[in-house]
Amino acid sequence: MPRLIKNKRTSILFMTDFLYGFVAIAIIARLVSLAISKRNEARLRAAGATEYDVATTRILTIAHVGFYVACMIESEFRAAPISTMTYAGIAIWTVSIIMLAGVIATLRDLWTVKLFISPNHEIRTSILYKICKHPNYFLNIAPELIGFGLALQAWGTLIVGLPVYAAILWRRIRAEEAAMKATFPAY
């Protein structure tokens, strides 16, 4: 049975390939979700939906891409060996993507990365929304970023990037709450 890791040099190469594979899967997952968002956005606009908080959406987009890029750069320079933390991060990231799939399945055509209120918008009351008022943010985005950073052992990005992202996300949540309350008085 051949050994995958023969010495320190091949160990580093294996680690790099393994993490590059994870990063590729993470980027593909986000591109797929973006394609779903774009499709739903076109349908919502055609149905007369109103977009809210455009500026925060732009800032969140930059922050999300920036977080991923910062983690990748930090990981490349650190070249930390694969450890239990790497696997824990991948597990957390995987669960977050499963939660994203659940959110998309629940909201269906209403889900986008942008903040839209459709004329035929309905408040969802699935199990995800009973667990958490904002599952896309707290069950997907937050654990996604934490898992990605842990998997790449990007400690600096986690320490600096998460609080910055959280502040932007808090702004988005407040805007979403205001839009929902203005549309649905019982919200």
Order of helices and strands: HEHHEHHH
> DSSP helix count?
6
Output the strand order for the largest sheet.
1-2
- When the domains are counted, the total is 1
Write down the Rg. Answer: 19 Å
Q: What spatial form do the alpha-carbon principal axes imply?
A: elongated
**CA distance, first residue to last residue:** 61 Å
Unreliable stretches covering 5 or more consecutive residues: 1-14
Which structural class best describes the helix and strand composition? mainly alpha
In terms of DSSP E residues, the strand content is under 5%
Q: Please state the average pLDDT score.
A: 89
Largest sheet: 2 strands, antiparallel
Instruction: Please give the number of β-strands.
Output: 2
Q: What percentage of residues falls in helices of 4 or more residues?
A: over 70%
Description:
This protein has 187 residues and is mainly α. It has one domain. The chain is built from 6 helices and 2 strands. Strands 1-2 form a two-stranded antiparallel ribbon. Helix 5 packs antiparallel against helix 6. The longest helix is centred in the N-terminal third of the chain and has 39 residues. The N terminus is likely disordered. This is Isoprenylcysteine carboxyl methyltransferase. Keywords: Membrane, Transmembrane, Transmembrane helix.
